[in-house]
Amino acid sequence: MIATPDRTPLTRRFFDRPVLEVAPDLLGRTLVRRTPDGAVELRLTEVEAYAGPADPGSHAYRGRTERNAVMFGPPGHAYVYFTYGMWHCMNLVCGPEGSPSGVLLRAGEILSGHEWAHKHRRTARNDRELAKGPARLATALGIDRRLNGIDVCAGPQAPMAILTGAPAPADQVLSGPRTGVGGEGATHPYRFWIDGDPTVSPYRAHTPRRRKSDAPSDAT
């Protein structure tokens, strides 16, 4: 049974901790997305931790770039990136400023604003699929690069906030390898999810992408 969600916003101090502490502690929290057309609320059910320079799977592994600059800033900000030429994904920056790490929001349960979310995720067959995966989550909440760098601890008028919600009990939190991460970071158990929750996305191991130059030739 899920406890009554607490409406108290999480403070910056919550995010100013090691990413492997913050990531599982985000499960069960309530994400509020505010827009001029209405608000959507989501209960976080799946996340992944990315530990910066110590983590080959992190965007910050090789240092600061224009793309990942937000990760090097203060905690409690959103790092939104564009991937595969079609999708957006969102991380929450953790740890002290200058030490880049973040938590990818992978999946969640829409609590309110279902109609608004379905307008953005027209291919979702049911409510469970609305935010089942990081790109789906971002799409359902209307998140794109315009929200990169926003402060989720800025107060009640901010476009996004994280509320205390109903944190998942420790015995319901599982961990394992991250989805689609290859190389040295493939086996890191940095993915966390609520056991048995129907909105959690399926695990997929990394599959190397074939370059055009590596494609089989028809020439004999």
Description:
With 220 residues, this protein is mainly β. It is built from 4 helices and 9 strands; from the N terminus they run βααβββββααβββ. Strands 1, 2, 3, 4, 5, 6, 7, 8 and 9 form a 9-stranded antiparallel sheet that branches. It is globular, with a radius of gyration of 17 Å. The model is unreliable at 211-220 (pLDDT under 50). Keywords: DNA damage, DNA repair, Glycosidase, Hydrolase. It is an enzyme of class 3 (hydrolase). Residues 188-220 are annotated as: Disordered. Pfam families: Pur_DNA_glyco. InterPro entries: Formyl_transferase-like_C_sf, MPG, MPG_sf.
Q: Would you report the number of β strands?
A: 9
What separation lies between the terminal Cα atoms?
64 Å
How large is the count of helical segments?
Answer: 4
Overall shape: it is globular
Q: Strand fraction band?
A: 25-35%
Radius of gyration equals 17 Å
Give the SSE string. Answer: EHHEEEEEHHEEE
Helix content: 10-25%
Largest beta sheet, briefly? 9 strands, antiparallel
Average of the residue pLDDT scores: 90
Unreliable residue stretches: 211-220
Structural class: mainly beta
GO molecular function: hydrolase activity, acting on glycosyl bonds
Protein name: Putative 3-methyladenine DNA glycosylase
Pfam families: Pur_DNA_glyco
Family: Belongs to the DNA glycosylase MPG family.
